[in-house]
Amino acid sequence: MSQATDVAAEDRGQIESVSGPVVTAVDLDARMNDVVYVGDEGLMGEVIEIEGNVTTVQVYEETSGVGPGEPVVNTGEPLTVDLGPGMLDSIYDGVQRPLDVLEEKMGSPFLDRGVDAPGIDMEQTWEFEPTVEEGDTVEPSDIVGEVPETQTIDHKVMVPPDYEGGEVAAVEAGEFTVEETVVELANGEEIQMHQEWPVREARPVEEKQTPTEPLISGQRILDGLFPLAKGGTAAIPGPFGSGKTVTQQSLAKFADADIVVYIGCGERGNEMTEVIEDFPELPDPQTGNPLMERTTLIANTSNMPVAARESCVYTGITIGEFYRDMGYDVALMADSTSRWAEAMREISSRLEEMPGEEGYPAYLAARLSQFYERAGYFENINGSEGSISVIGAVSPPGGDFSEPVTQNTLRIVKTFWALDADLAERRHFPAINWDDSYSLYRDQLDEWFEENVSAEWPDRRQWAVDILDEEGELQEIVQLVGEDALPDDQRLTLEVARYIREGWLQQNAFIEVDQYCPPEKTFKMLGAIKTFDDEAFEALEAGVPIDEITAIDAAPKLNRIATTPDDEVDEHVEELKEEIETQLRELY
Amino acid sequence: MKEYKTITEISGPLVFAEVDESIGYDEMVEIETADGDTLRGQVLESADDLVAIQVFEGTSGIDRNASVRFTGETLKMPVTEDLLGRVLDGSGNPIDGGPDIVPDERHDIVGEAINPVSREYPEEFIQTGVSAIDGMNTLVRGQKLPIFSASGLPHSELALQIARQATVPEEDEAGEESEFAVVFGAMGITQEEANEFMDDFERTGALERSVVFMNLADDPAVERTVTPRMALTTAEYLAFEKGYHVLTILTDMTNYCEALRQIGAAREEVPGRRGYPGYMYTDLAQLYERAGRIDGREGSVTQIPILTMPGEDDTHPIPDLTGYITEGQIVMDRDLDSKGMEPPVNVLPSLSRLMDDGIGEGLTREDHGDLKDQLFAAYAQGEDLRDLVNIVGREALSETDNKYLDFADRFESEFVDQGFRTNRDIDRTLDIGWELISLLPKTELNRIGEDLIEEYYVEDADVDDDAGSEEAPADD
Question: Which of A240, B159, B344, B415 fits as disulfide partner to B336, beta carbons 3.0 to 4.6 Å?
Fold first, then answer.
């Protein structure tokens, strides 16, 4: 966030009343969504309602002790983020104040208030390498140079989208701070690495395109059954304890995106600490560099001010859009969007607005769809292509998916990963329910999987889905009469389904070889189970008793393929297939 | 300090007064009634000429002529190491007849959020001596792990057992003296329950290292909104400034939430689910998040809040919002209780989110993680089969299924039902787990690494003796 000193105060007013994070002020000349500084301590807030002479402000910090009569100063600018090199490997609060800088400035592990800091380090210098020359013509959003931001990512310096552009009058390579001019245009416009952008406004693009490439997550159930596209949207709803955060973190670690923006919105402090401690240590599966080098974290934990929770998703997606403009694939995780919706509800009720369903404001659906619409696969104005995939966790009260946040989210997103408390209780992780989940990207991504993994991908997936469906139906009967009462072929189907569930769908995030499963391995593992299925049914037809079929030594090994290292999978699966074949054929 | 005699409205716990100066939000207020009583309250809403005050002791006795004084500061808790061993009321005044408290410092009770960058991730295993917790849902230092209970279940006994037995084996072995303290915050519990806690504290000598805050059932409900904040402020002081490892027990959070609802209703707020205020998530988070460790500081705050689920419904807003904030939950079950299990912990819906980083080689034992997963899966399977047995009978089930049923029964009677006075170390807990899981054939153990099965699987499994457990002397 830009500092107060950067902008001349346009006007001053006084506080009229204070109620939690909502403050009203009189005699303040402000526009909607202007950022204001409230009270003697200068707490940051945003204008959310204007009625006559009374301006209502949501304050991003704790308001105890603030009273009427104290000043309110308008900056005359909407809530913006600082964009430029230095955002990666950073951890921010909901209004882009770097938490490590705050710790230093406050001199305490506790978050004090009234302390502001810019989102990127204004002093640090970066090695600027121009990609344009004097005399070239540049247009808004064009890339004029590069900066090695981290080992993993080259930061592209772009002409701000609100510039006119024109002929390059001067350009120089070398070490610069983000505020120094690196390119001058003939019309007098000066380009710095640092840009600002209002968070509630999407950065402009040329065109939104249909996504055709999957965002590989390394999770078998996701890649295999419910894939997400690069530029797609997904929701993970689930009751507490069902593994939303573990799934989100796995995605943040392993998704094959260039940039990851992870938003901890109103969640647990210790969880964010885990991310902060782990990510600098963990290697990025694509490059081997520390994960933090491609990651921006936004941590607004549940006990941090509620108004900053409302803004943190916007802060995150604006940062994401900036990297998308550079031509990168960005994956954004918001954990949890329910907390964001609750922040809206809390502010709305303090404003005494007429409530919609379950006390949420009537504009809930509109806000959610505006946010998810900022995702997509885009052709950028500068001609590059980039994407933002948005994965939002939803925390429905009581695990009831009929509540407003889940329902309004489902109307927008195209991938739905339903977490299931029952699976979680059995410690079947990821606890994603295969009956309730869906992905509308499945068909448009098939081509990619056929080309890059195997032509049989769609068929094999369908086979697995069919078996699981059949199991679901059979289980209803088993609940009534017991498994032994079923005919042999149905019992065998149950056995195969069990291997799909336990050996393939289950994945252990705490075992190193199993945390990330490349699509090839996902495919081969399923292949091994399919071989068992084919061979076992042949044996059954040949008259072998079911108990003998399921008792072969090789069968339990199907549950252990997951822990075979990736480079040995090929060989291991082939051996296992042969073993199954031999052992079953010996029986008849 | 200016005095006002300008009360315009009194409604439930709220008093509205006209003022002609700036009054800060959350500021403390004193109201003197005609009888000379002084009541304390807090500013809930501050406007130009009118403030809304929430009165802790209740508004009874206040009339429109009562005088209102604004203290100019927010509510503070006087803190000092001398608080250890003391019993205070819900607003922090001593009720044990001891000397006045001479504070070293006065801390704002609202507390500030710990910067996530400054936190240290909790991963130190706390041995509670309770198998259902240590083995299946391990507690670690700095965690917030509530007990989800219901009326009539022995949650107090479990909380006391944990407070009595909790140790960190690693430090014990190293001979390190870890300074351990208990902060106990009671909100709206009955005198009898309070006595139960106090008796146990006194008998075991735990009182010396405890600070007790008592808001009883007949104390003002509004005071309950302050009690946990007082307790946590004290806990934070002891932990982060004096280096204690503080176990904070808050009971009963349901009464706290009822008090929130009461205030919300009096203020005519738009209610959220079931009449509870829309900001209850944020409010609870401001309590629960005050657990953890801080990088570079010695101590820790571990929280065990207890709540009774209305109607034993874990989708009720109180357990639901709590579960979304805390790092797991320990669930008490009425069926297990009526079977006489002590403690009646149902491990399936219970969860400890920080478990996986606090167990394993070097922390507890290498086999802990795998064994736990297998025990969960096997018990869940056994539970499912019980429903089926009711319909088709045991004879209709396969041999393996019968083994699962036996396993589930014995898991309850031998693993979970250990008694409130038995202290089992982690090795003993895991050994019992192995003996039970070995009732199943090796081929069924698909969650456990083969090498571990090799090492720990018990051939001819049969559990009977309880060596390695420490029986506490019986109640006298």
Answer: B344
